[in-house]
Amino acid sequence: MTDHAMDRIDLLIVGGGINGAGIARDAAGRGLSVLLVEQDDLASHTSSSSTKLIHGGLRYLEYGEFRLVREALIERERLLNMAPHIIWPLSFVLPQTQSPRPAWMVRLGLFLYDHLGGREKLPGTCTVTLEGSKFGAGLSPRKGKAFVYSDCWVEDSRLVVLNAMDAAERGATIATRTKLVDAKREGDGWVATIEAAGETRTVRARALVNAAGPWVADVIGRTHGARADRGVRLVKGSHIIVPKLYEGDHAFMLQNDDRRIVFAIPYEGRFTLVGTTDEPWTDAPAKASISAAETNYLLVTVDRYFARKTGETDIVWSYAGIRPLYDDHSANASAVTRDYVLDLDTGAEGESGAPMLNIFGGKITTYRKLAEHAMRELARFFPAAGGAWTAGAALPGGDMADADFDAFLRELTARHSDMPPALLRRLARAYGTRIHAMLETGDLGPDLGGGLHTAEVDYLVKVEWARTVEDILYRRSKLGLHVPPETPERLAAYLAERGVA
Q: Can you list the domains of the chain with their CATH numbers?
């Protein structure tokens, strides 16, 4: 925190989730000087607690969110091309046997879903008979019709890190474990106090972006003279991970009698991810955990649909996140808009005051478009900045020919035939073309357990801001579900030996 060149910058961004990282990337690519501060690790809250889908939001059609769905569907294939190592197509089976919605209504929604966003790569919807079909595997009863449609999977926390990496490579400073203490307008800019490791520092910025997610209102409260006439509604979503419920690489979209939906998704090879819930969060923002009621709701849903009975003792991991939704005053938490709202506050001086842009709502699929929209809101304050550029620009590791991960992996396997195929595939999925930097010495170093080698840890510390065991085992990867019991302790010792805190 001694880089005095950053004492005066164009843009100070508060929040290291997907929106903050996406805006930092976009702004840095336009030639602006950017400092992003995040009080914890990148993606340490909402952005690592999603259902891990790049999707249009089929159920949002039921609430009339056509613009949001169209924008998300367009972004879905765009992001697939930008990061084919961490994003890939996924088929979803929508059984009609226990559906509270008539089949004609679901089919109409899927027709719109197929055609609203100019789909190019992903296959369209088809109808299948579950009995005797691979899509009925594991279901009970295995009968009736189902619709099969397409969306995409994403490694959500890695998507955040890749945006932060790209921003840094374009000149941005990414300061994790750094907190905004306060900020005030001074002339046509901002004077902000930030704190890291107990030390404070003053930063002068032309504009302030509040992308603090669940803490968006908290940041407004620390900003002298900020307008606070927008509301944020916090909704908790929780997920459970259980042993694999069925065979196959497809997911299920399960409809409940209360008209809410729950996904069951293949996870980390050996497991099934089940979620999400929608539960109002009325306390101050904090690290969330699943409640007993949410656990029961998800387990009851699983038992309604699958032959394999699952209880609380089968849960190998759970996680929960708080979604910072724009408060549109809906009575039902599930119906609160997932669309984003950008609130530009220029202070008492009106149009000439120092700008503060508050980000409300949003979803991971539309983060790039949100960032582009945010920069459009700020454009008049930075007339020398470049134009929009991110739509076709690959994220770090995603620059592979024709965005074809399978071809990339085949070439990589041929070049490194001495490496265990499973390890090579995992590294390729996580790092894409950036794997070459890790493999260039030909020595991955000692294995700390479960295929986590010291060369990978060194890379994560040097390039991806990893500092703790949790950063590495549960955000940069999901190796925490696979490594032997002694690995966390060995990893902690290695990080301490390297002087990483």
A: 4-46+158-231+338-392 (3.50.50.60), 78-154+233-325 (3.30.9.10), 403-497 (1.10.8.870)
